[in-house]
Amino acid sequence: MRETKRTVSRKRITKYCVPLSPPLSPEVPDRPRRRNKKGVFLTDYYNSIRNHYTSVWGLEGVLKRPVEGPVWELPPDYSILEFPPNRALRPGTPLWMYATVGMSNPVDDRRLELHLLAPTQSDRHVMTLTFVAHYHRTGEPIWYNHTVNLGVPWAEGSMCDHALISKPYPLGSEMEVGLVCRKDVRFLWLLPITRAEREFARCRGVEALEQQFDKVGLEYWNPQRQSTV
User: Fold this and answer.
1) 3-class DSSP state of 18
2) In a domain, 37, yes or no
3) Residue 21 covered by a domain
4) Number of H helices, E strands in the chain
5) pLDDT band per the 50, 70, 90 thresholds, residue 29
6) Beta strands, E only, the chain
7) What is the DSSP string of 106-169?
8) Which of 65, 151, 171, 185 has its CB 3.0 to 4.6 Å from that of 175, i.e. a possible disulfide?
């Protein structure tokens, strides 16, 4: 496990996602079908990613595009899908899902997309995912069990200003692995954690941290939760 070393100011992170363009239609019909170096149409690839999320979540999402900040350093048409709560899928606390579309590229050795589960609707979550996606594309690639220093809390007043790249336990194996344009893509969970939990994972391992989460009954959706260690 490793942690990214980048810590940025709130002002710089905010530039990644504000303002947002209006929602686009689900199939983005006005976008040309660009082909990458290996002959895969990127529009088809992105639409397949969106279809994977929709099939698992069970509801249609709204597409949001960051238009400020270094978005040119992200893959073409990178965006975030915002999904409303699905009470049929998760009858407990209603959760919104925010998910990257285009964090990966068909030519990547390891293709990764991330999603975040939150109790409230907020463009702050678009900002958080875009920051992590930008680091993944331009800094050091992230993968299973890596940690990220977000630099700011993931929600107002939260102690969680780090995140763990985790298996998507709340949504199961159906979310984790998808076949997108004949490419294997991993859809992992960006789980907000505290600095103390990050240090615990570094010293004892991610499995020990997950056991601690299970022991206390982690309320991962609660921004005001206390550290479990």
Assistant:
1) coil
2) yes
3) yes
4) 6, 8
5) very low
6) 62-64, 79-83, 96-101, 111-118, 147-149, 162-166, 177-180, 183-193
7) TT-SSEEEEEEEESS--HHHHHHHHHHHHHHHHS----TT-EEE-SS-SSTT-S--EEEEE--T
8) 171
Give the number of domains in the chain.
1
Angle at CA 147, nearest 5°, toward 161 and 42?
105
pLDDT in tens, 82-131: 999 998 887 788 999 999 999 999 999 999 999 999 999 999 999 899 99
Q: Which two tokens stand for residue 145?
A: 């069990």
Judge whether 221 lies within some domain.
Answer: no
pLDDT in tens, 8-23: 333 333 333 332 333 3
What domain range is 121 assigned to? 10-193
What's the residue count for the chain? 229
